[in-house]
Amino acid sequence: MLVLLGILVVVVGFALRLNPMLVVTVAGLVTGFLGGMTPLAILNAFGTGFAGSRSVSIFLLVLPVIGMVEYFGLQEQARRLVSRLSTLTTGKILAGYFLVRQATAAIGLLSIGGHAQTVRPLVAPMAEAAAVRKYGTLPEPVSQRIRAFSASTDNVGAFFGEDIFVAVGAVLLITSFVDTTYGYTLQPLQVALWAIPTAIVALLIHGTRSLLMDRSLRRQMAGFQNVTGEVAR
Amino acid sequence: MIQVEWFYWLIGLFFLLVGVLVARDRTNPRRVTSGVFWALLGLCFPYSSFVVAKTLPAWPLGLTIVVIAAIAGTGRLAKSGSATQATVDGDVEGADLDRDATGSERFGRGLRSHRTDPDTGSGTGGSGPGVSGSEGGVGVLTQITRQREAFAERFGNKLFIPVLTIPILTALCATLGPKIKIGGQPLFHVGSETVIGLAAAGLIAIPIGMYLFRQKTPAIALTQGRRLTEDLGWALVLPQLLSVLGLVFATAGVGKAIGTTVSKVLPDGSLLPAVILYCLGMAIFTVIMGNAFAAFPVMTAAIGYPVLVAAMGGNPPVIFAIGMLSGYCGTLCTPMAANFNIVPVALLELKSNYAVIRQQIPTAIPLLVANIVLMYVIAF
Predict the structure, then answer these.
(1) B169 FRET partner, CA 20 to 30 A, in A53, A104, A182, B317?
(2) Where are chain B's structural domains?
(3) Within-domain flag for A228
(4) pLDDT tens digit sequence for B84-103
């Protein structure tokens, strides 16, 4: 039971807004010691864990080309494009990307989207530009909210699309775990099939929220205009 | 056969290079410790190859990770001033002819050299009349915007080509990659086709961009890559550090401890509370671990299999699939899932670490309720 103190370190550390690197490292060391691991075993676990998880950092190799294209005005061009297509609203852009993201993840094309590859260079600037076309310069909380919501469409679309694809890590983890532990012979297809109902609910909830962004932005902007109006008066 | 390790070595090399440049960059308020941070991180990537192959011990790598975390965790990692300003350049007219020369110079020395000595760049067209040392922070920013707008005007929709190359090539590698064989050997390292695809696509897009924007060298890509890397800072390492924590949790028996606690609170014989406990437990344990994959074996061994399947006769694939997806609802709500929730905060320059999570909670909660209902209705 003592090992659960490591979790406490994480919760308290994040609550106090300490640097996450520090919190996570201390939590790892504390948990290791309380769990009766030797210092060598803890360091070995740190090394093995890092070496085995390098694939989450592979997106780094996309950054140079994204930075290069941004240097030559990619985000500005995304904005120009949106300002010409007057039927595109923030909500429609977000919902459209969400739909594409979930659909492509469902057929196994998980890494064609992502925060580095698509959200930063394309989705967020386009969604923001559509709002700028409508309201002019955006107050900071509004633009921050649009960007953060753009990231959320990527996450929700990816999470609740990928499990429909049979060869994805999550499905294979489920089948291999229950097959070896409980002696089943589950087919990945059976597991993937039952991911569909949740995927549809996710599509409805987050798709609706994306489309409702337009209305919610209108309300938020009205609030800001009232405030500035009062100040001017 | 193309190995995924090659790309990890390349990442290591890039970090090493960033480390050397940062250490020499006087615009960085903590250039020594920051340089050490990036250089050590660079060394970790190739060393990891030997750890995975079990030819070198893992503990020196572990020790280095602790040092890196200590540097960043105590505020000794800083961004270089030149990295944020490196986007400013001279007049747009002469840009495509002389960009390579000035680009490589900037990558090496930072903009400061231009700013303090306007004459250095003027001969090569690098520092035009638009930028001078007298322009302050805001002036620099408007300069960046004006320059980018001019470029956007000139290159138009061509700008999308390199960006769209990435998903297309990645998709091709993921789908056709496993089928390509050369001399009976698969072309890509088996099981890593998508990772290789993404890395290769990012690299192939660079020469495509160089061609489209008439660049002779990849200097701009490197400068901008360094800028984005420094902007991300420790957020770049956090996802891997959290995997480390997951492994330590698993080795120290945190999962087992939670499993026993959870099975103790379970009331006997009632179906709905058991379903709720399994789904909610998956979500909460995922919030703690940052990873539904870590939560799944624990919660399934505690409730999912013994109670829901064995005792109450639920349909196994339904229970397990929806159980995992309940965990994903937790992933949407936790800073521990750094690659999904913290990396975009850095990439999108958001003020609050919780900005993305805040937008996701209103989806995660109703979706978790829906999962409970779906499991209850479909599995029994």
Answers:
(1) A53
(2) 4-73, 81-236, 238-379
(3) no
(4) 554 444 333 333 333 333 44
